[in-house]
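User: Before I run my own analysis I want an independent prediction to cross-check against. Here's the chain; please return only the structure tokens and, at the end, one sentence I can use as a sanity check.
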Amino acid sequence: QVQLVESGGGLVQPGGSLTLSCAASGSIFSINAMGWYRQAPGKQRDLVAVITSNGSAMYAESVRGRFTISRDNPKNTVYLQMNSLKPEDTAVYYCYARLESTRRILRTYWGQGTQVTVSS
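Assistant: Structure tokens:
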């Protein structure tokens, strides 16, 4: 079994900052990509940022320059530093990991989601 546990969401004022973290644990052989999606009420789930095992990162245009994704490979943990937050960043943020289990099965796993609310 593999689990992804997220933390760090909450309420923040516009212009503020938050850091999300997501730790993967369980029967993990190797992790390829880790990243974050978000879903606002009534909208589809969209990619926010992704980082590969060698540190290459990609961002959605709407967050580039404000958000930074990073990864601690030995800890199987991915972080999302969010600065200059805007009300339109309000959403449930989902962590994901594309990984190979110890049974050598490659698939994508998801966290339970963490709410980020940007409001004054």
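Sanity check: The chain has a mean pLDDT of 96.
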